[in-house]
Amino acid sequence: MSPLALLAVDEAAASPSFAILPALILVPVLTAVAIAFLPGRRADYLKVAALTGSTITGAFSLYVLAQFDIDDPGLQFVTQQDWIPSLGLSWFLAVDGISLFLVVLTGLLFPIAILTTEPHHDAKPYYAWLMLLMAGSMGAFLALDLLLFFLFFEVVLVPMYFLIGGWGHGNRVQAAMKFFLYTMAASALMLVGIVSVVFLSAAATGGPTFDVTALAEAQALSDTAALLVFITFAIAFAVKVPVFPVHTWLPDAHTEAPTAGSVILAGVMLKLGTYGLIRFGVYLFPAVVDQYGLVLMTLGVIGIIYGAAAATMQRDLKRLVAYSSVAHMGFIVLGIFALNSQGLEGAVLQMVNHGISTGALFILVGWVYERRHTRQISALGGLQKAAPVMAGVFTLVMLSSIGLPGLNGFVGEFLILLGAFSSARWWAVVATAGVILAALYLLWAYQRSFHGPAEGENADMADLRLSEFMGILPLLVLIVGLGVYPKPVLDRIAPAVDELVSHVEAHAEDFSEQEPAPVERRGTEELISTAEEAHEGAKEGEE
Amino acid sequence: MIPSLAQVPVTPTPTPEIAWSLIWPFVVLSLGGVLLITITSVVPRLRGNGFPASFTAVTAAIAAATLFNIWDRVNGVEGPQLVVGNAIGVDGFTVFVTLVICIAVFFASMLLDDYLRRENLDGPEWYVLLLMSAAGGVLLASAEDLIVTFIGLEVLSIAAYVMAALHLRRLDSQEAGFKYFLLGALASAVLLYGIALVYGATGSTSLQTIAIAGLVPNELGISAGSESSMILVGMAFLLVGFAFKVSAAPFHFWTPDVYQGSPTPVVAFMASGIKVAGFAGMVRVFWVGFGPYFADWRPIIFGLAIITLIIGSLLALAQRNVKRMLAYSSITHAGFILVAVYAAASPDGSGGILGGEAFLFYLFTYTVMVAGTFGVVTVVGGRGDGNHDLDDYRGLSKRQPLLALMMAALLFSQAGVPFTSGFIAKFRVIAAVASEDTAATYTLAAIAMLTAVVSAVLYLRIVVSMFLVDLPGTASAEAGEEGDEADTEEPLPRLNPALSAVMAVSLAAFVTILFGLVPDLGGDVLTDAAESLDAFRLGS
Predict the structure, then answer these.
(1) What are the strands, taking DSSP E only, across A52-206?
(2) Helix (H) or strand (E) holding B89
């Protein structure tokens, strides 16, 4: 057990005015430092230390969730402290309905990823990098200072680079390089964009400030300047998401990364892109987004279809899941730029859903690879007979990814399509086809690897151990739970999203013509729950 | 009858009054050098390693310590001052640059200690030359007269030529020294010619007078700035001379060769101290002396910056020798500093101060980073200073985990990764240049950022070699994937870094991270130093 992490807990209990958000960043950092000082030979101690640190962070994030004021659409738990006054940079952390569940997702996925996977060598740096990655991801979701966000957004590349390069498979070094440079190149111009937006708004905000709320209120940029700056932001985020056609780093990075790396990459890091598009794209540049949102919606739809088509063609199970991410992230982009409550709510919810189900899929693929040392679908087959529990878990996760009603994926996708339909009808129509394609590639892959006769090693594959099952169980619970009863989550997302939509409406001149169709959100939920009940039986039958 | 000497009426040459208390750092550094060679000549047993290194480090520390008093004086009631017959300007800028040069001397002496021990060389000559070169650098940074500029530059450079060639048993070192000398002498000649032309155009070598000539019309009602093409040519020649010293493209050709051949600790000083002094001299001459002509030279800096950034980052990609890679990286850094110089020369005041701050901060962080990086290169170079291929860094994370980790931190800082001082330095430059809000400055900022990404490749390649490539002779964790070349190769040599080198690298890594996390440690020092030069600026 890491002593430093324990210390942080004591501090939390002792001080009533304990700043919980900085703790979400500091606890993983301290854990990483503690791990660096532990002896490197005992991998199990290191794992316990990492697990302790990440679980404490996860518990803190749950505490934030519990204390979150459901009626407050604004920022909560605000911590603001001068950091580099000469640059106008402050340590400005806060959560609102948009970032809340991403923080919780981060707090949840890291312990699970650490619990369910093992590094094959050099456990010490592996866990240290993972904990630094956790700190960076938390920081990026919490930061409301533009430059602070950028710092975290960039710094997560380093641990991920080492994780892919050090513990990955096959072409790990090339994949790591490609990942690092691709992402860094995309965000290089964003720094220029950040600086310009800050200096161009300086008159309106009273001196240069990186405070996102102040910049968003000021809206001081001319149309051209706003468009250009938005483009630099959009490129950085689009690569991270990734949006077609800048997705090409993703299949390599995902495939070569170690399992925990893939889980975090898909579950947490891709969300930095979509979260950035909402927080720093839509919020800072409402007029631009309103005018050019359709371009990004189009790219999102292309991503949906392209990702699905490419996934269908894959022979490698992990690559297939990677391409499915491209498709799913396309849905989220579509929802964001629908620019109405349903679309944005669906997008935020879908970010969480994708993190859960794709994270779980990567864990499962990792287990298959560990047992069979191959991910080629053609080499697998009939695994169901040898490993019935794993097959059951895989089925549930896969159905969630497909978006089967009654599971979490459906709620998000349905809301997104609803939102997209009311702002750009035909885009929604095409995107719906993507749902069908998702069923095609996942079911087909499942069929080829789990059904049929089991031959050779496939027949003796070990089923899930209890510890493994317990590790993935929280994700399964969430998959069903969020599918059956998403109301508590949506209730917390909705006020912040409504606030954002009215912010966009206030600043976009020609918004009124796109006013969403009068489909009430509450009504939406009822629709969903009836759909869920109808499918509940079907799902259980399958398991 | 020849009169005896005593009877000749003596008219003493007028000598300026010397304000010793304001030029202490220069005195301490040069006197330290003289003292060191005297002591070691008289007491030969002190010639061995240890004493000269510590003597040099202490001298640098004393020189730095005298700066506190001077800083208080020039930033207090006395204000910036022109001393020694108006030939030396003492202001916040001088103090800051002198401090950075002292830091570079400190690091170089620590690394030299490690190097000389391994090479079985002794001799205080290295350290004496180091101190002399630093004294020249201090002079160059504070020169308010072009003649003093030239003297400073030559003292700085000649000591460096000798240091580059001082490893007498190694042909590489000789070759590097010779190349450096030939090309450096050419650059000095060009610079001197520039000084002559400027003198011809304005009738003075004093920067103040040159600036006034640019502002005040002469008896014909023509100011030198608007009319004289002679001063423009002179300015161009001066710029060429300085561009050579700071290895800005297209005057960078010597850099990779000289860096590759010279003893690594000397390279550490070349890349840090000499470059810093060169930039400081350039900025002083151009801001103060040619301030009124900034519309003429600013576009040239713009072009130089772009060429330097692009050439430095792109050519680094083709290298496999780490010293050459770092040479190109130092060219890219020079490009970034030029961007800061460009921003600092902004016609509107606020951008200028931001640019000046960025310039000084970059010099400081760059010196520390590059000294630490070359510290690791010195250690890895091993006996004979020849192990500089990318392959020699393989498995450094296993052989010297701490050293590898610190090297990674330093390299990531050079690449501009957040939470390192390198990022803050780059950010300050970008902020300064973009705050001017013209198409040209945005272009420059964008090019700077994109080339930073390109040059990240070279740092990543070294990191890959250190961390991600398996050691020959050890079983790969995922057997069969990397193991094919393992059988054919010899195991890599053991590294025995001396304590001094480890300390230097640790200090550099610590400072790099510290200033990445708390960049405002220095308080208002940067602002004061950047503003202080304005006191001497006339035209802008």
Answers:
(1) 76-84, 89-95
(2) strand B88-90
Give the Å distances, CA to CA, from B426 to A52, A445, B311, B358, B423: 37, 48, 18, 8, 5
Enter the tokens of residue B97: 């640059």
CA B151 to chain centre: 17
Q: Which residue of A has its CA nearest to B482?
A: A170
**Interface predicted TM-score of the whole assembly (ipTM), two decimals:** 0.86
pLDDT tens per residue, range A83-118: 877 777 888 898 988 999 999 999 999 999 998 888
Q: How far is CA A80 from CA A93, A318, A406, in A?
A: 6, 42, 41
How would you class A220 by CB atoms within 10 Å of its CB: exposed for 0-12, middle for 13-18, buried for 19 or more? Answer: middle
Chain A residues with CB-CB distance to B519 below 8 A = 84, 86-87
CA pair distance A315, A313, nearest whole angstrom: 7
Q: What is the pTM of this model?
A: 0.88
Contacts of B254 by beta carbon, 8 Å cutoff, 6+ apart = B179, B180, B183, B184, B244, B247
Report the residue of A148, A182, A184 to disrupt the B interface, i.e. the one with the largest count of B CBs within 10 Å: A184
Other C-beta atoms lying within 10 Å of the C-beta of residue A37: 10
Task: For residue A278, give the DSSP letter.
Answer: I
Query: If you compute the radius of gyration of chain B from its CA atoms, what whole number of angstroms results?
Result: 24
Residue B538 contacts A where some CB pair is shorter than 8 Å: no
Which one is predicted more confidently, B28 or A371? B28
The pLDDT tens digits of the residues spanning A25-37 come to 999 999 999 888 8
User: Which is more confident, B222 or B100?
Assistant: B100
Look up residue B394 and give its DSSP letter.
T
Measured CA to CA, the distance from residue B55 to residue A329 in angstroms comes to 62
Cα distance from N-terminal residue to C-terminal residue, chain B = 61
Tokens for A216, please give them: 């968003």
Strand partners, A82: A90
A147·B527 Cβ contact <8 A:
no
Cis check for the bond before A85: say yes or no (omega within 30 of 0): no
Q: Where are the alpha helices (DSSP H) in A339-424?
A: 341-372, 383-386, 388-402, 408-423
How crowded is residue B538: how many other Cβ atoms within 10 Å of its Cβ? 18
